[in-house]
Design goal:
By secondary structure, the protein is an alpha/beta fold. It has helices at residues 14-27, 43-61, 78-93, 105-111, 158-163, 185-190, 200-204, 211-215, 231-244, 261-273, 291-306, 318-324, 347-356; strands at 66-70, 97-101, 114-119, 122-128, 144-148, 174-175, 178-179, 193-196, 279-283, 310-314, 327-332, 335-340.
Length: 357
C-alpha cells in the first residue's frame, strides 16, 4: 500500500500511522483509540481529530501554520465547546496562528487575543483582548497564590510558563523588576526560580537511578568551584537533604523508583527547596500521594513561603488551595476572571467560580 500526497512513493506502514495517531491525540490531551470510526465519535472528538490532523503538519515540517476554524463549535454543547477551544489555545501556545470564525460572541470574547468584526464582507472594527491591571498575576515574597479553573482553561500552564518551559505569547515575566520574559530555564533557576512539575515520574525524577544522583542533577550540590563532581560530597549532601525534607528512608543509595509516591515527591521538593528559591512554582504538588504525604508536602510548601519564597500553585484540589493559599485566581480560556481572598476563599466558592466564570 502506498501513502498519499507528498509521500506517494514511500511505503505506508499501518503500525507507524497508528503510533503517530496516538501521539498526536495524546499531545492534545485526547483519549481516542486510533481504530475508532469517525462516524462513531461525538462532535467534539471529531473536531479534535481534525485539529490533530492539522497539527501533523507542524510535526512533519517543523514550521508554524495558520489554522482556520470555521464555526467549529456551532453544533457542540457547552462542555464540548470548551474542549475544542482549549485545543485551539494549545495550538496557539505552540506558535501557530489560529483564526476562529464564530457567531458565538461569548466564546470569541473569552478566547481571542484580537477580534475583527465584519458586516457584509466589510471590516467594521478590530478589538484587542483585555490587558488592564486586573488581569496581571503578581505574587509577593512570602505569599502563596493558587491558580484554578476547569480542565483546559489555562491554569495548568502557569507554572511552566513562569519557569520558562513554555514561551509567553504576550505580556512580560518580571522578577523584582528584572525582565525574564526571554530568559531560559537555566537562567531563571540561577536567579532563584524553582518548579516542581506535575508529572514527577516523567519530569521530576529518574526512577532507575539512586536518590543522590537525582539530587546531584543541580549544578551546585557536591561540586567544586570548577564543576568537578565529588561522589562522597553528593551522597553526604543527599543524606542531609533527605533527612531534612522527611524522605523515608533517607537512603541516598536507594533507587527513587523504590520509594512510595509521597517520598518520590519529597525527593523532588528536596532538590528544589534545598536551593531556598525566591520563587517556587508547583503543578499539582500532591497529586497521586496519600493523605499523610500530602500533609507533609504542604507543610514544606508553607515553610518555604515563611522563609520568603513567592509561591504559585496550580491545582484541581480546591480544598488544598483553600487551606494554604492567601489568594486563588480563577482562570477561563487563559484569562484571570476572578480573585478569591478572605472569607470568600473556600473550597465550595472556588468550585462554583471555576464553573461559572
Amino acid at each position: 500500500m502506498l501513502a498519499y500526497g507528498a509521500r506517494l512513493l514511500a511505503p505506508f506502514s499501518m503500525a507507524a500511522e497508528r503510533r503517530i495517531c496516538r501521539e498526536l491525540l495524546a499531545d492534545l490531551g485526547a483519549r481516542i483509540h486510533p481504530d475508532t470510526l469517525i462516524a462513531d465519535l461525538p462532535p467534539a472528538a471529531r473536531a479534535t481529530v481534525s485539529i490533530a490532523r492539522a497539527t501533523r503538519l507542524l510535526r512533519e515540517h517543523g514550521e508554524r501554520f495558520v489554522f482556520i476554524l470555521d464555526e467549529p463549535t456551532a453544533y457542540l454543547s457547552a462542555d464540548e465547546s470548551q474542549q475544542v477551544i482549549a485545543l485551539m489555545r494549545r495550538v496557539a501556545d505552540r506558535g501557530s496562528a489560529v483564526v476562529f470564525i464564530s457567531h458565538r460572541l461569548q466564546e470569541v470574547a473569552a478566547v481571542a487575543d484580537r477580534v475583527t468584526v465584519l458586516r457584509d464582507g466589510v471590516v467594521v472594527d478590530t478589538f484587542v483582548g483585555q490587558t488592564d491591571s486586573q488581569h496581571d498575576l503578581g505574587v509577593a515574597a512570602g505569599e502563596i497564590v493558587g491558580v484554578a479553573g476547569l480542565v483546559g482553561m489555562g491554569h495548568e500552564e502557569i507554572p511552566a510558563l513562569l519557569a520558562g518551559a513554555v514561551p509567553a505569547r504576550a505580556g512580560r515575566v518580571l522578577l523584582d523588576g528584572a525582565d525574564l520574559t526571554d530568559a531560559g530555564i537555566a537562567e531563571r533557576i540561577a536567579l532563584g526560580v524553582s518548579m516542581v512539575p506535575g508529572n514527577r515520574q516523567r519530569d521530576g525524577v529518574w526512577l532507575d537511578v539512586e536518590a543522590f544522583e537525582n539530587l546531584a542533577i543541580l549544578p551546585d550540590m557536591g561540586r567544586s568551584l570548577l564543576g568537578v563532581r565529588h561522589r562522597e560530597r553528593e551522597i553526604g549532601g543527599a543524606t542531609d537533604a533527605m533527612t531534612r525534607f522527611g524522605v523515608r528512608p533517607p537512603d541516598p543509595l536507594a533507587r527513587v523508583g523504590q520509594f512510595s509516591g509521597g517520598n518520590q515527591q519529597k525527593v523532588v521538593l528536596a532538590k528544589w527547596l534545598g536551593r531556598e528559591p525566591r520563587v517556587l512554582l508547583l503543578d499539582e504538588p500532591t497529586q497521586g500521594i496519600d493523605a499523610g504525604a500530602k500533609h507533609d508536602v504542604l507543610q514544606l510548601v508553607c515553610a518555604a513561603a515563611t522563609k520568603g519564597a513567592a509561591v504559585v500553585i496550580a491545582s484541581g484540589d480546591y480544598e488544598q488551595l483553600a487551606n494554604i493559599c492567601h489568594r486563588v485566581l480563577i482562570l477561563r480560556f487563559g484569562r484571570i476572571t476572578g480573585t478569591l481572598t478572605g472569607p470568600d476563599l473556600t473550597e465550595a466558592t472556588i468550585a462554583a467560580r471555576a464553573q461559572a466564570d
